[in-house]
Write a sequence for this structure.
C-alpha cells in the first residue's frame, strides 16, 4: 500500500466518526465519504490531504485561503467537523521550561515595537470600513457583546455591553474618560452621550480615526470628545484621567510588555480612579495561541503579533504594576454568540463582501481575505464555545493610600466594593 493510499484510508475512517456528514474530492478526482454530505472539501494537492489526515486545522485553513482546498456547505458545519478532526486539545495546561519562556519573551519583545504595532493594527483594522460594516452592528462595536437578555439582537447586546462597562466604571458627568484602542468610537461616544463625560480616545488605525472624527463632528461633540491617532505609550496628558477603559486592545500588547502596559495605564488614571480592561484570554495556562496550527493561521491572516495570556497571568501583571483588582467577570459564552452573529451576517452577504474587498485589492486578494475572515469568525466562535479561549472584564483601581476615600473605610478608591450599583435602574442621560 502506498503512502497516499494509507493517508486516504486513514481519512476515510475519520470521516465516519464526524458529527456532520463530510465528503472529500481527492486530487485524483475520486470522492470518499458521505453521499449526502453537509460539507464537501475539494482537495487539489497532496499536501492539503496530509494536513487533513494529521488534524492540522490551521494549515488546512491556510490551504482554503490560498485556494488549494475549496469547501462547500455551511461554515458552522465545517467548524463542527474541524473540531472533531483535532488530534487532541489545542490548549496547554502544563508549565513551560525556562528556555521556552526565554524564547517566547524574546519573540514578544521583538514583535511589539511602536512601528510594528502600528503596522500590525493597520493590517487588520484598515482592511475596509465598508467590509466591517457588512457584519458588525450599526455602531461597529468590534468586541464581545453582552446578552443581558436571551432574546437580544446583536445591536441590543452591544449597547448593553457599552452600558455595562460605563456602569462598572461609575462614569459621572464631567469626568475625564480615556478609551485606549477606541475602535470605531462605540464606547467613546456612548460614554459621552449617555454619561456626560469628557472623553478621549486613541487608536492606531487610520480608518477608524477618520471615521470617529466624522462622528464627533456630526454629533456636535467636538467640545468634549476627541480621538487621537496615537500609541498608548506616547500619551502624556496634562493630568491623569478619572476613568480608563481598554477594550479588545491588550491582546496586541505582547506578553513581554504586559507589566509595562499596566504600569502606563496606572499612570494614566488618577489615584482612586478606576480601570476597565476587557480582553481575550487563553483557555490554557501555558499557550499564547491555539495549537493544531489555528494560532498560526490567526497570526498570518488576521492578527499579526497577537498574544493571549491566561487570566491568572494577566492578574499577576496587573497587580505587579500597582493596580488592585476590584471585580472580574468571565463573558466567554457571550463572545461565542457575538462571533456567531458576525459570522452569520457575513455568510449572508458573501457576494457583497467580495465586491467591497475587490475595490481595493482586486478579485484574487478579495477572495483570500474573505475566506480568511469566514474561517476566523466561525473558528473563534467555536473556540469560545469550547473554552479554548475566553474573555474577561477586569475592573481595577489605583488605590490612593487614603483610608477615608470611598464609601467604605479602606476602599482607597471610588469603587464601592459591592455590585449593587451596576444593576441600579436606568443609565445616566447627561448630555
Amino acid at each position: 500500500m502506498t503512502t497516499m493510499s494509507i493517508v486516504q484510508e486513514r481519512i476515510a475512517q475519520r470521516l465516519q466518526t464526524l458529527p456532520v456528514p463530510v465528503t472529500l474530492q481527492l486530487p485524483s478526482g475520486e470522492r470518499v465519504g458521505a453521499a449526502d454530505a453537509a460539507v464537501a472539501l475539494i482537495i487539489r494537492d497532496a499536501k492539503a490531504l496530509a494536513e487533513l489526515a494529521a488534524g492540522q486545522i490551521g494549515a488546512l485553513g491556510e490551504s482554503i485561503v490560498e485556494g488549494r482546498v475549496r469547501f462547500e456547505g455551511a461554515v458552522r458545519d465545517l467548524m463542527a467537523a474541524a473540531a472533531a478532526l483535532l488530534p487532541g486539545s489545542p490548549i496547554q495546561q502544563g508549565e513551560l521550561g525556562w528556555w521556552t519562556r526565554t524564547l517566547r519573551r524574546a519573540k514578544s519583545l521583538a514583535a511589539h515595537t511602536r512601528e510594528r504595532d502600528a503596522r500590525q493594527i493597520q493590517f487588520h483594522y484598515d482592511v475596509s470600513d465598508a467590509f466591517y460594516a457588512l457584519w458588525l452592528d450599526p455602531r461597529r462595536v468590534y468586541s464581545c457583546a453582552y446578552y443581558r437578555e436571551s432574546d437580544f439582537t446583536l445591536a441590543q447586546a452591544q449597547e448593553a455591553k457599552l452600558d455595562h462597562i460605563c456602569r462598572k466604571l461609575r462614569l459621572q458627568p464631567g469626568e475625564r474618560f480615556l478609551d485606549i484602542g477606541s475602535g470605531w468610537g462605540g464606547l467613546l461616544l456612548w460614554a459621552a452621550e449617555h454619561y456626560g463625560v469628557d472623553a478621549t480616545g486613541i487608536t492606531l488605525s487610520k480608518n477608524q480615526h477618520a471615521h470617529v472624527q466624522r462622528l464627533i463632528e456630526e454629533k456636535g461633540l467636538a467640545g468634549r470628545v476627541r480621538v487621537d491617532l496615537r500609541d498608548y505609550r506616547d500619551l502624556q496628558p496634562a493630568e491623569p484621567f478619572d476613568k480608563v477603559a481598554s477594550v479588545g486592545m491588550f491582546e496586541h500588547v505582547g506578553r513581554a510588555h504586559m507589566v509595562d502596559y499596566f504600569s502606563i495605564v496606572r499612570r494614566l488614571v488618577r489615584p482612586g480612579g478606576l480601570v476597565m480592561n476587557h480582553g481575550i484570554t487563553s483557555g490554557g495556562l501555558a499557550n499564547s495561541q491555539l495549537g493544531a496550527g489555528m494560532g498560526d493561521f490567526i497570526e498570518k491572516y488576521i492578527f499579526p503579533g497577537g498574544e493571549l495570556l491566561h487570566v491568572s497571568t494577566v492578574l499577576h501583571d496587573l497587580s505587579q504594576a500597582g493596580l488592585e483588582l476590584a471585580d472580574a467577570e468571565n463573558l466567554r459564552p457571550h463572545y461565542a454568540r457575538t462571533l456567531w452573529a458576525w459570522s452569520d451576517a457575513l455568510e449572508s452577504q458573501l457576494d457583497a463582501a467580495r465586491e467591497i474587498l475587490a475595490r481595493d485589492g482586486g478579485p484574487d486578494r478579495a477572495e483570500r481575505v474573505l475566506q480568511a475572515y469566514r474561517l476566523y469568525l466561525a473558528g473563534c466562535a467555536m473556540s469560545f464555545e469550547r473554552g479554548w479561549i475566553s474573555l474577561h472584564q477586569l475592573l481595577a483601581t489605583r488605590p490612593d493610600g487614603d483610608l477615608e476615600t470611598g464609601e467604605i473605610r479602606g476602599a482607597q478608591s471610588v469603587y464601592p466594593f459591592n455590585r449593587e450599583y451596576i444593576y441600579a435602574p436606568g443609565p445616566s442621560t447627561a448630555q
About this structure: The CA atoms of residues 84 and 122 lie 34 Å apart. The two ends are 76 Å apart (CA to CA). Residues 120-125 have pLDDT under 50 and may be disordered. The longest helix spans residues 350-385.
